[in-house]
Amino acid sequence: MVSWIISRLVVLVFGTLYPAYSSYKAVKSKDVKEYVKWMMYWIIFALFTAVEVFTDMFLCWIPFYYELKIAFVVWLLSPYTKGSSVLYRKFVHPTLSSKEKDIDEYICQAKDKSYDTLVHFGRKGLNVAATAAVMAATKSQGVLSDRLRSFSMQDLSSYESDSVNTGPGTTTQPAAAQHRTRAMMRSKSESYNKGEQT
């Protein structure tokens, strides 16, 4: 466990942070030689990081595995060994040069497929959202119309006639008419609620 923590720290500090700062210095100074040096390093380090995911799962039982990783990162960075430059020039550059057209074609196909997939799932998502919105609107409209249907025209006309019968110039209903109208509306509402529950 201690070896793992130390290797993570060394890779973070010497494998990532120091090269990032050195790359910044190369960009700032606009020195082409430094650009090339650090670009080769980052290509090798990206490959190392990709391979490390699998080696950490399957080879961590090897004695001194984490110490070997630390030594490898130091070897990549060392100005004496120029490890990243050696690996890039001897292995990576020739391999990528011979497979460059195939890789570019594969990347184009992957971009096209990912765009098509994104459009396909985007359309599906919009269809699902539209269907859900229509269903919610339909359901709420049905509930509203059912509520309105529960009051018959006779109920509304009797309510109107009660308020008209109070006499000219008065806007309030007599207590008996108000009570009868409220009772009628309450019974209609209760019968509707009972119908909903069943």
UniProtKB/TrEMBL annotation:
Membrane topology, record value: Multi-pass membrane protein
Keywords recorded for this protein, A-Z: Membrane, Transmembrane, Transmembrane helix
Single GO BP term: thigmotaxis
Gene Ontology CC terms, in alphabetical order: cytoplasmic microtubule; endoplasmic reticulum membrane; endoplasmic reticulum tubular network
Source species of the chain: Sander lucioperca (Pike-perch)
One of the record's GO molecular function terms: microtubule binding
Start-end of Basic and acidic residues biased regions: 187-198
InterPro entries for this protein: TB2_DP1_HVA22 (IPR004345)
Protein family (similarity comment): Belongs to the DP1 family.
Annotated transmembrane regions: 38-62
Protein name, per record: Receptor expression-enhancing protein
Originating gene: reep1
Subcellular location: Membrane
A matching Pfam family: TB2_DP1_HVA22
Region (Disordered): 158-198
Main location: membrane
Residue ranges, compositional bias (Low complexity): 166-178
